[in-house]
Design a protein that fits this description.
The structure holds 2 protein chains of 2 kinds. Chain A is an alpha/beta fold. In chain A, about 30% of the residues lie in helices and about 10% in strands. Classes of the chains: A alpha/beta, B alpha/beta.
Chain lengths: ~350, ~325
Amino acid sequence: MKPQGSQLDPALGSDPFTQGDGTLPFLIRLREHTIRVVDESGQPRSRSAPSKVSSGPPDLGPPIPEVPSFDEADEPSGWMDRLAGVLLEREDEERLAVLADNLNARPYDVLGLSPRVTRRALSVFKLLYRYYFRVESSGHQVIPEKGGAILAANHGGLLPFDASMAIVDLFLKANPPRLLRTVVDRWAGSLPFVNVFYARVGQIIGSHDNFRELLQDDQLVLVFPEGMPATRKRAAERYVLQHFRLGFIEESMRNRVPIVPVALVGPDDQAPILYDIGALARILRLPVFPITPTFPWLGPLGLLPYPVKYEIRYGEPFRFYEEYPAESAEDPHAVRYLAEQVRRRIQEMVDQRVLARRSQGT
Amino acid sequence: MRSVLVTHLDSTVGRRLAKTLYHDPEVSLVFGTGMGPRPSFLDAYREKCAYQRLDLAKARHLTSFFRSERFARAQVDAVIHLPFVSEHRGERIPGNVASLVSETRRLLEECKKHRSIERFVYLSSAFVYRPEPGNVNVFSEDQLLGFETEGDTLVRAWIDADLICQGELNDPHLKMTILRAATIVTEGGEFLQSPPLSRGGPPIGFNPMLSVIADRDIGRALVLALHADCPGIYNIAGREVFPCTELLQNNYRFGPLPVPRLLSTAISLMDRGLGRSQPRQSGLLRYGVVLNTRRAADLLGFEPQYRIEVSGRGSDLRVETVRCR
């Protein structure tokens, strides 16, 4: 029979382990005694700490002014925030407010996205979007207004401006605005500063768990199924899509989200690679060591993209999960077949735009 | 009704746990042990709480305690083990850290000998996981642990103890529950069980995200694990996540400089040649630990009731735990 509630006797016997006085255990007196706390009626008062008896509220003088809570306190505003305020228009701020609402007013989401840093970044990249890359886009109506979706795009260029332009495009033109989360290569996670910036603007390292986390959170996820080989493409292979990886098809089937094909025209022209010194790249643990018309001749500046015109086209979504059972995600042949369908569609969309540009002489 | 043995009850987390258990109608007795003298906060809970000063790392003390009349009278049927949150131990002293692993093993052995003990809840740390640049950002319970031979001593001890407890997950008589807790924030704004925050910050160019949890929520989670009939491993964390540098209290400016791997390997080889050895920079300082707590929410019913609010920086840093409305 175990001791029960108020009948409990906490004196469980002598304490043979008292240290410091060297007394033998059997000589030690009981140190703990039962203290029964009783109320005014004599009944035991259980499960509450002893409290002082008071006779009305004491006179403590005027109340102390309330200290503003964290919510009310003004956030310190740095020069970058002020600059962002200048660069962003009222409509942009309203769109940002919609995005921030999705974070439930938390300063960071679990993957490190910060609305504040995103606001700063969007203000700068919007300038690039409008005046440097002069982005034209169409097909935003296929972007789901809510819920998760995978945007699969072709990839090109040494620096990932294609992803940033797609993010700005959906921020400015999708209705309602949606923040695109990009899956980046694992290598980027080990780069100082870059890894922090990517995390704060909502980009994630490419692992299935991260991918799943975003889709289950009803986010739009941009993937480049060609992976890192796309950045190693030489000038002669521009706009020829590489072999597709399959993870995005598997996650689409498992999480029942559509895949929106996206054609990006322009990135492959922004820094044409003449030659890739693979051996040097391996020694330096870099994905690519390119020779371009400007790199390494101009130093790091030679890596900057040329001011090419970007075009972004969103195609009709694939809803494989409606046509195939979820188990297909575990069948490598089926997944490969579906990935090939997506690759072909994107290649067609890219080819159309490239031909149109050539015919226009741009 | 449960009679619960709580190790290291004299720690901050132990204090919170004692209060939660005291108010739990399903618990008849809280029998605490600790390295220090009987803590004064227990005076408020004398009806239900007993205390025993005890060094669990000493095998003879532990065996004698389990065979004592006092222990027999308590009729303990559940154990909550809080191994690494005691303020009486220097967390960074390797000898003590190693002894904490052995105390976990010995405690488990004693518990298995006493068939009356049915439950064992162990408070582990989230930092047992292996953060890597290519690894996940949000850790679920199935992720790999960081078995780095040259890693941090404390983290290695956590992993060892965690593995010892994992070994008992399939024991039919002793239901084992392991709770892997994020960085613990006390009511006074102190951080417990957080190597990235106690090591002076991340290297330049890195700012890992960390999950945090209020110490009162830890107490609740432990009690939920005690009562739930769902042995297993659970991540527990609050809703908030913060970058490491926002939680540093030492006027963080710049951490160590990260150097390219070729150079770092050369430096390391040179150091070894000169007979010097430096602790390897753990991925914990670069990639952080954010926890996926869905399993704890679904099976234990754990939802954090306190949120962590942070304001200011460096010496002006203010960290508070605020009850959710």
